[in-house]
Amino acid sequence: MHQAVVTAISAAAADAGIVLDPQQRLLVDRLAVLVPEGHRRTRRSSGPRGLYVHGSAGRGKTWLADAFFDAGPTPRKTRIHFHSFFEELHRRVHEHRNDPHSLRLGIDDVVGDSELLYFDELHVHDSGDARLLTRLLEYVLARRITVLATSNYAPDDLLPNPIWHHLFEPGIAMIKDHFDVHHLDGQTDYRASPRPDSVGFAAGTWITVPASDRLSPSTETVGLTVRGRRFEVSSEGDGCLQASFAQLCDAPVSTIEYLTWAGTYSRWTITDVPTFDDADEEAQQRFVNLVDILVDENIAVTFTSPHTLPVFCSAATASRPDAFRMTSRLRLIRPTA
To answer: Pfam families of this UniProt entry (predicted)?
Structure first.
């Protein structure tokens, strides 16, 4: 089984024109021994219960984990992304709100009968998320579900805010006690060199529009309704959504709306993107979340801004210590003057 997984990932890399570097090949070897409990030859098999992969943005964690998931030894598997997990879990818990075990039932609905759970882009910045992730870890360990998680953070660095960090210490302890922890220590951010045949998000563009060339914004908007809440955007239709940064991030828009629209519109245009110097913290966080979702859903996006992409990324990383993931992802797209 080990060699079959290595062969499958290597073939996927070759098909994609990717040459795995030495650090990535080490991770492939670690992934290849991650065998779901029900597929081990004996209870004494040496394979880990889970694998937690962390490292800097753009080093190939998600690509390799996706390739392993596709080649995985069981059809009973679930892939969840940070934002979609919480949106789905909250919705499922709400459906069971009259049951005292609503959280466990909600996790049951999300995880199902999976033997392998792949959690992509695990990060914790909110005390409420910390509680839910701790319950999820307790659940999967009790069910003996094999877990693969990717993150930009080492376990001890999750929920880095010192005021709240103690709330996730039980979750950190479970990760360190029950999972192998692997640092993908690559030196190259592969997102910095977009491929010419890019598709989806990587086929998007960042267009710098000088202030003198900008047209006056239209006062006409279109209303979109999600779960009874109305939101204004510039236009929508034929699979395309156009909205300004202000409409998407200054307004009280949540990941629920972003996920809904990502499932509806395959092409986006986001206009008038300011630097983070000119956006409040809530708007900054919404834009970080939005980029996460657009990348995970592989949506092609045209961004327009009075600022170049390097200027935007530089200001973002200076404003927010957690903006590195977003700026790495934005390097996938083509800057166009």
So the answer is: AFG1_ATPase
